[in-house]
Design brief:
The chain is mainly α. The chain contains 4 helices and no strands. The longest helix has 30 residues. The chain is flat, with a radius of gyration of 24 Å.
Length: 127
């Protein structure tokens, strides 16, 4: 009989259920399903409304993020006293603010940099 590895001993001794082979299997199966269903939705064209299809794809993508965070990254309130989860949430807030702010700035630059109409119906030349 082979001896269990140090990593296996550490995972079992701390009683962390997310680090088991069962957790990895569940995460893998959910990830495959959450990838295959959107692919099937797009390729089969079963939904004729593009907005509904896009909403379902985004919802399944968000669900897949949750699956990866819980099953593979093991971010929960128990690991390291919750500090890893707090750091992950802080990083998420910073990324969302950066992306949303960039989109907002680009939209307003686009709207405000358009050529101005002249009183006579023409457009001011761009130099």
């Amino acid at each position: 009989m082979s001896q269990p590895s140090i990593a296996q001993d550490a995972a079992h001794s701390h009683g962390e259920p997310g680090h088991s082979q069962r957790g990895y299997r569940i995460g893998t199966i959910l990830s495959i399903i959450l990838t295959a269903v959107p692919f099937w939705l797009v390729m089969s064209g079963v939904l004729h409304d593009a907005q509904t299809t896009a909403a379902l794809i985004f919802a399944m993508g968000f669900a897949q993020i949750i699956v990866h965070v819980l099953c593979f990254l093991h971010l929960d309130t128990r690991s390291e006293g919750g500090w890893t989860l707090l750091a992950f949430l802080f990083t998420t807030v910073i990324v969302v603010l950066t992306v949303a702010g960039s989109i907002w700035v680009m939209y307003h630059l686009n709207a405000n940099m358009m050529p101005m109409p002249m009183p006579g119906g023409g457009v001011l030349p761009v130099h």
